[in-house]
Specification:
Order of helices and strands: HHHHHHHHEEEHEHEE
Number of helices: 10
Helix content: 25-40%
Largest sheet: 6 strands, mixed
Distance between the termini: 67 Å
Radius of gyration: 27 Å
Oligomer: single chain
CATH architecture of one domain: 2-Layer Sandwich
Low-confidence stretches: 1-16, 255-264
Shape: elongated
CATH topology of one domain: Nucleotidyltransferase, domain 5
Number of strands: 6
Structural class: alpha/beta
Length: 269
């Protein structure tokens, strides 16, 4: 006796393309699109409504469209908030729980599920290996703090108009605790100086020093890593550092660059 033929079940990817309550199959839909008969004739033949025939004739594909909103967006977060979240995730590469515990102090309305949905929506929920971070103990939170300040350009896709919108983000991340303060602000020397003033107010009597790259936004000189770039400079950021008694040093070069990430609807530089 011969073996019975094996019936292979359709894959999950195929099942997702057709809604379980659909009244037409992919083969029927393709036949509707290729037919030149009137909608009334096709509706009677396939026992469906004329609107269904008209719908599939107007489409050039046979799979069901994605369920839910066409342009999903957060009801709690603005796009400025999302730009800050993505810049912080890209800069620190912290795990979800570590990132949430620190971003929550900056954005009190943020929830863990909102953070996860934001990262997933822009393709940042999985970024490979994540960085480890010590727990936020009372001793660590007492300072002194050393913040690294960086300027980022986050381009998000506007769901209403389908165009990319640039959000410049000034991001300050503490070296040990990975605590964060950030603003969507133009990267100019005057804006950076004002940003430093608000950063000092957020952490009074704790901010000891800041580090930045050799960038015209933050300095007009190039010194060694251990020298204070705000000692004699007339740059607006240097004047702000001297006003608040904050040392300004060069950022140490990273030992390795983070892997390139290319989500569909976000670009960070």
């Amino acid at each position: 006796m011969g073996q019975k033929p094996v019936t292979r079940k359709p894959s999950r990817a195929v099942q997702r393309r057709t809604h379980p309550c659909a009244t037409t199959t992919r083969r029927v839909r393709r036949a509707i699109q290729e037919s030149e008969e009137k909608n009334v004739v096709l509706a009677k033949r396939y026992s469906v409504d004329r609107k269904t025939i008209a719908k599939w004739k107007a489409r050039d594909f046979v799979s069901d469209e994605r369920m839910g909103p066409k342009n999903p967006r957060s009801s709690l977060l603005s796009q400025e908030d999302e730009a800050v979240i993505l810049a912080y995730r890209w800069r620190t590469r912290l795990a979800l729980n570590d990132a949430y515990s620190r971003l929550r102090r900056l954005t009190p309305k943020l929830t863990r599920s909102t953070l996860y949905r934001c990262l997933k929506r822009y393709g940042f929920s999985r970024i490979g290996s994540t960085a480890t971070c010590p727990p936020l103990t009372a001793a660590a939170l007492n300072g002194p703090y050393i913040f690294e300040i960086t300027a980022h350009e986050v381009t998000l896709l506007d769901p209403d108009h389908g165009i990319g919108v640039l959000y410049p983000v000034l991001l300050a991340v503490e070296e040990i605790t990975k605590d964060v303060y950030a603003e969507v602000s133009q990267p100019t020397p005057e804006k950076a100086a004002a940003f430093l003033g608000r950063l000092v107010k957020q952490f009074p009597q704790k901010l000891h020093a800041v580090t930045t790259d050799i960038d015209p936004i933050f300095t007009d000189c190039s010194l060694a890593f251990e020298e204070d770039m705000a000692a004699v400079s007339l740059h607006p950021f240097a004047l702000a550092c001297r006003t608040y008694s904050v040392l300004h040093a060069r950022s140490l070069p990273p030992h390795r660059k983070p892997p390139k990430i290319g989500p569909r609807s976000v670009e960070i530089r």
